[in-house]
């Protein structure tokens, strides 16, 4: 699933192609992808509108339109949002096509069909609970050591579960959670309320560092992820633990362990993480 660095990379790669463009038409091939409003109403409302800005919040992409509405897209497991020339053919997994110029389309493709699309009033997220309840943006100024400490203090949670909780910190998924915990030297099953000051500092540094690295390398293309131009990222070549269960730790050589924590496959080094 695309996480914060991937969605940020998609946002940055789409921006020059979609900003200030008018959506002249939309073709809907799978109604189920549009969660609000009804597909016909969606089409009627969005046609003729100009995209005045594009933003990201957590794993959501926000296309602000010139009528005070926002097109909100979550790619979930296998969603892809790509700008391409109109004469390029598309397959059965392309569910939505936005016409954004005489030559180019913005296409939403999704093999698993878990992606979601909404058209709602700008900054009124009441129809999208996941967006309304999002926690801190981890790369914003508001998120610092004190913020993290306050989120942790007095709460009983496993560290891995805490990192995946979008209502606390937005945008971290399974890949970056495992990489963050390895970088911080912390075991995924640690209780957050037991963390020391220096461990919280290490955790804070690892969160910002790993997410920034992910953006720098234009995301992790482990399975389906590509950016807004259809290009793969390269952070998969930099991963220390995710997808490496049973292989030697790159730091100490011990075999990395894989277990299920919070229902998610979790890889960690039994020696480097405690
Ligand atoms: Zn190790």
Distance between the termini: 27 Å
Q: What's the SSE pattern?
A: HEEHEEEEEEEHHHHHEE
Beta fraction: 15-25%
Per DSSP E runs of 2 or more residues, the count of β-strands stands at: 11
**Which ions, cofactors or small ligands are bound in this entry?**
zinc ion
What is the count of structural domains?
Answer: 2
H/I helix tally:
7
Poorly predicted tracts of residues = none
Helix residue percentage: 25-40%
Query: How is the biggest beta sheet arranged?
Result: 5 strands, mixed
User: Which structural category do the helix and sheet elements fall into?
Assistant: alpha+beta
Shape: globular
* CATH architecture term of the largest domain: Alpha-Beta Barrel
CATH-derived topology of the largest domain: N-terminal domain of MutM-like DNA repair proteins
CATH class of the largest domain: Alpha Beta
Relevant CATH superfamily of the largest domain: MutM-like, N-terminal
Mean pLDDT reading: 96
How are the secondary structure elements laid out?
Elements: H1 4-18, E1 25-28, E2 34-36, H2 39-46, E3 51-57, E4 60-65, E5 69-74, E6 79-85, E7 94-99, E8 104-110, E9 116-121, H3 129-132, H4 145-152, H5 159-164, H6 174-184, H7 197-216, E10 257-261, E11 264-268
Parallel strand pairs: 2-9
Antiparallel strand pairs: 1-7, 3-4, 4-5, 5-9, 6-8, 7-8, 10-11
Bound molecules: zinc ion.
